[in-house]
Amino acid sequence: MAVLWLDEISAGDLEQVGGKGASLGELTGAGLPVPPGFVVTAGTYRRFIEDAEIDEELFAAVDVDVDDSAALADAADRAQELIVETPFPDELREEILESYREVGDGEAFVAVRSSATAEDLPDASFAGQQETFLNVTEEDLLNRVRECWASLFTQRAIYYRQEQGFDHSAVNIAVVVQQMVDAEKSGVMFTSHPSTGDPTMIIEAAWGLGEAVVSGAVSPDNYVIDRGDRSMDLTIAEKKVMHEKDEETGQTVERDVPEEKRTQRVISDDEIDALMDLGERVEDHYGEPQDVEWAIVDGDVYMLQSRPITTIDEDETAADATGSVDPTKGLTDGSGSAQAADGSSATGASADSSASSGEVIVDGLGSSPGTVSGPAKIVTKLDDLAKVSEGDIIVTEMTMPDMVPAMKRASGIITDEGGMTSHAAIVSRELGVPAIVGTTNATTVLQDGQVVTLDGDKGAVLEGKTVEPDEETEPVEEVRPQSPVKPMTATEVKVNVSIPEAAERAAATGADGVGLLRTEHMILSLNQTPEKFIAENGTDAYITELVEGIRGVADEFYPRPVRVRTLDAPTDEFRQLEGGEDEPEEHNPMLGYRGIRRSLDRTDVFAHELEAFHRLYELGYDNVEIMLPLVNDAEDIYRAKECMKEAGIDPEKRKWGAMIETPAAALSVEEMADAGIDFASFGTNDLTQYTLAVDRNNEHVADRFDELHPAVLRLLGDVIETCRERGVDTSICGQAGSKPEMVQFLVNEGISSISANIDAVRDVQHEVKRVEQKLLLDSVR
Ligand code: PEP
Ligand code: MG
After folding, report:
1. What is the pTM of this model?
2. Which of the residue ranges 274-283, 506-515, 533-542, 569-578 would you say has the lowest mean pLDDT?
3. Do 606 and 717 sit in the same domain of this protein?
4. Cis amide leading into 651 (omega within 30)
5. Are 81 and 217 in the same domain?
6. In a domain? residue 352
7. Ligand minimally distant from the alpha carbon of residue 426
8. Organism's domain of life (predicted)?
9. Residue 733 annotated among the catalytic residues of the structure
10. Which of 168, 193, 243, 423 is catalytic?
11. From ligand 2's centre to the CA of 683, what distance in Å?
12. Any idea of the CA torsion for 721, 726, 729, 732, to the nearest 10 degrees?
């Protein structure tokens, strides 16, 4: 048998039907209303290549040096060509087509999707097995199946398997063929409240096909229903567009919702009852709250997909062997979340139970929220890092990139120097470790081993231990990814990432992409200046470091966009690295040799960075965008664009843009638009320091550092206006994008996206939605 029907699949068939096929089979088997379909099994793929005797040639073709991008591209082309050009044997062709004809009387539009079977691959999605074709009919079906098979041999997939040491010939692929539901209405449903865990179902619903809701193209109606008495809280949204199947072409198209249906409630009470019954059945089946995609056609409810709600923390579910979660607590308890998971739990802190005087002994800027107690470890030189154990609180002048491993172990961080945008502040927020910066005197006032309590919200260090270890989960709750009920916003909400290790946490926020990926942390963690590293290890090693660092984040977010900034470290940061003695001495490094200035001066080093981008594009990371830091004018842009072209990057094909970090850049944005930028992104940390002449890292003038100063806001507003006229996207990736007042200002001005810190993403999404709704209301009043 070349195919298995969804209702024939059992748990033991995973190898044959892959993850997607197995889960649809399980739901079908449980009697849930899944649209009918079948799986072309992994064994069929295998027989196809073996019977046609293309297997050996196929595996030989992809046995290449994956760092040679030309060879890799040729290998992928050759392998895919071999598969798509090999004809189906008659018998197999007939069996697949006959199965298709049994779905929807031979006239069905079907979805054709690859289904990974290599469950031992750490990230099967990256193995390239993620092809999806919608609205397929008999005419194209066989080609689509072959294309799914060929997706095993994209450049990315080949590269990945080679790097991970997987044998190409050991990986198989199944293909799911399933009837498309021509939905009149559709949406998502959370079977329990995803952030509070209450026994409350949340349903979002809009007209037409589900992609409009899932992709955020439309704001859906929102129904919050108590599972006990079924009382309901209802918010009806204005639904302007819907996705539908075009009757002639079969393709999905976006259409305007007819006027009378725009503010009409989408699902009736009966339909809500049907959805809730379905939700309860699927939750019972899996024993845990689910996030379900559903569709309704002719009054029948279908379930398209179901997965566990991802914010339920793992320890909670793992602790419960039956898998059943008490939804009233399982979703809200922050224990076992990011902080504990990355090894920085506060267990060390509990060792000392000395009573606390609770007196404030040091204060500074609370830069990463949460409260923890633990022994202070004074770090004055790198050797001291060895004494930092899990649960300790690092006390140091200022953190450096090579301290990141110890920062992960620590339960808290306190520095003498720095402001809200310093290394310690940025990295601790991304790691979810409470921190206080700019205390001026922590390293002298605090004693090594002294037990203290760090309150990262208030910016206060108290003597002794004032919180019990179980209360220390509090900070985690604040920084952990929260509810997956992502408010639908027209303004995109993205996230900032500085250390690749934070990519997973960042992606779990549900952000629309990465608005700023700082590459300097990848370079600084090499502990050598780029020039030194290249001299010792060669250019290829340098490029590979960049490719690997960026790839980790680009993967985590794929296909959401990731805006990667080219190198921007001031010379004083480079000076502390090996090779730093060759850095120029500067009176004021913030006004000196950094960002695009350095790149355009050392075009040889810049070329290696651009080569890294080039390789990522070759590997298929079309979600990577290039952002240029500290530009002043269009001249900088033209010169950088030339460098991109020399590196083989086509500026017309890729998305790239500039940071607006100097008043000069803000005043030159029109000319920069002429030079071809796709986006302008506000670096308000620098824009504020240069507009107000306030050093962002100088704690003595920290009270004068005001991103909401009218002069800064004037520059921001003017740039947004100019860019809107020119069709250039605008964004903010400075720290101020996490502040509600700034969000209000920018959304009102019409910014295209806002990039926030990991811990602020969800609040920013809500704030953006609130401001957008107010704008809408104001426009109709
Ligand atoms: C900024 O200046 O606002 C910015 C985002 O860049 P950085 O903080 O890395 O200078
Ligand atoms: Mg900057």
Report:
1. 0.57
2. 569-578
3. yes
4. no
5. no
6. yes
7. 1
8. Archaea
9. yes
10. 423
11. 5
12. -40
